[in-house]
Specification:
The structure holds two protein chains of two kinds. Chain A is α/β, with parallel strands linked by helices. Chain A has six helices and 17 strands. In chain A, a hairpin with a 2-residue loop joins strand 16 and strand 17. By secondary structure, chain B is mainly alpha-helical. The chains are: A alpha/beta, B mainly alpha. The interface between A and B is medium-sized, with 18 and 24 residues.
């Protein structure tokens, strides 16, 4: 099966070069070339690429700003003309760093590294995750560990397995748009729950372990439909 | 293509500083594919022509953030075509704009000159490649 690729690059020449180089690798399929952060974020709303080739200097911001929008654990290759970003790239979990212009031998080495990585990585590490801003840093959260999310003022508290929690800087609405596809649903104006972790549902609300999550009137018909 | 690029190198050595473009880099980037080389050069022509126009506009307005995007784009294009010397100057300018340092009229003049030179080199490369195919 081919690995889907999202290329984020505003420079026409550099994009052409990557597209042409990718043609030599049938294991990879370029699905989309985004020319701005906005374009890439819109694409990621409905797609989960397996490889993201990411330019850093984009017209509407830095490529690293895309990291919180990535779900599904894609490999990220950073592409830039500025070597000073190398450390930051690896700090953000990039698998490789390509300096422009990318030569075919260097590109080949990069893709071979990814293929070898895919082959040697056990399936368990392919769990979907997301990066969320907590304080001054982005933290990685495995989506299957989220039990429910609770709105707390301008923040959202993610309640995780093992009685852990993390307060993150995101709106409930934005969070839902990013995790809804993994069987999450809003059941109250202040709560989103993971359907996979429901123990029971009654008039009092949804029971998840020791916690009872209230269900808002307007959300009840929707929840009932989901449960049926 | 290697032979065409050798001729191009000789032409550049006569008409320009011979370091103006890195022929080895160009050869790798073009992947020995005439059609692809043509596509890349057409794209470079369009990109640099747009940059020259915008540099003219921004030169009057001196809008630092818009200038930064133009300089960054020009540097990236120049680097892709092996124009390493130009890329060095453009990197300095990019840093200056990034740090919001003032851009002088002479900086603007140099920028426009470099952009025009990049365009001339792109046209020359395309001509040479066409002539020799």
């Amino acid at each position: 099966m081919k690995s889907s690729v999202l290329l984020v690059e505003d420079d026409l020449l550099s994009a052409k070069l990557i597209e042409r180089n990718l043609q030599n690798f049938p294991e990879f399929q370029l699905e989309h070339t985004a020319i701005s952060l906005k374009d890439a974020i819109a694409y990621l709303d409905n797609h989960v690429p397996e490889l993201v080739i990411l330019d850093i200097e984009l017209p509407d911001g830095k490529g690293f700003e895309l990291m919180p929008y990535l779900t599904g654990n894609p490999k990220v290759v950073v592409l830039t003309g500025d070597e000073s970003y190398a450390f930051t790239a690896f700090e953000h979990g990039a698998i490789d760093f390509l300096k422009k212009p990318v030569t075919p031998p260097r590109f080949k080495a990069c893709l071979e590294k990814i293929m070898a990585f895919n082959k040697n990585t056990p399936a368990t590490s392919d769990k979907p995750f997301l990066f969320v801003k907590a304080g001054f840093k982005y933290v990685r959260v495995n989506i299957d560990e989220i039990l429910y999310a609770e709105a707390v003022g301008d923040y959202v508290k993610l309640h995780l397995k093992g009685k852990k929690s993390v307060l993150v800087n995101i709106s409930l609405r934005d969070l839902l748009s990013r995790i809804e596809k993994y069987s999450f649903a809003q059941v109250h104006r202040s709560y989103i729950i993971s359907l996979a972790h429901i123990d029971s549902v009654d008039d009092e609300g949804v029971t998840m372990g020791e916690q009872i999550i209230p269900v808002g009137k307007t959300y009840k018909p929707f929840l009932n439909r989901l449960l049926q | 293509m290697a032979e065409q690029l050798e001729k191009l190198y000789a032409w550049i050595a006569v008409n320009y500083n011979q370091d103006i473009t890195n022929i080895d880099m160009l050869q790798q980037v073009f992947m020995d594919d005439d059609a692809f080389a043509g596509e890349m050069l057409d794209a470079a022509d369009i990109t640099i022509s747009q940059i020259i126009r915008k540099l003219g506009d921004d030169g009057q307005n001196r809008d630092a953030s818009s200038l930064y995007i133009q300089v960054h784009s020009l540097r990236s294009t120049a680097a892709t075509l092996g124009m390493e010397n130009m890329a060095g100057f453009l990197q300095e300018m990019e840093l200056k704009l990034k740090n919001k340092l003032p851009v002088s009229a002479s900086d603007m003049g140099n920028l426009q000159q470099v952009a025009r030179q990049a365009l001339t080199v792109v046209h020359a490369i395309r001509e040479q490649l066409k002539r020799n195919t």
